[in-house]
Amino acid sequence: MHLVMQAVAAEPHFPLAFVLVYVVGFIAAVTIGSIAWYNSKRPPGWENKERPDIVPKVEKEENPGI
Per the UniProt record, which residue ranges are transmembrane (predicted)? Predict the structure, then answer.
């Protein structure tokens, strides 16, 4: 039993910084993806639904720089 406890205690732990990077990245990806989805064309049956207040309105450019 003592040997097992030493093996577990000697095992390196996964750094907290890596976990935080993954969690923050996942939250950012979900947020950006949700904003992009709400600003895209609506699926059939959703055309007249209102946009949530938290999602910003993104305007299209009339004349893109060529």
Answer: 16-38
Range of the domain at 23: 18-57
Lowest mean pLDDT among 11-15, 16-20, 31-35, 61-65: 61-65
Where are the strands (E) in 1-66, listed by range? none
This prediction has a pTM of 0.49
Name which residue leads in pLDDT, 64 or 20: 20
Q: How many domains does the chain have?
A: 1
Report yes or no on 9 lying in a domain.
no
* Chain centroid to CA 41: 21
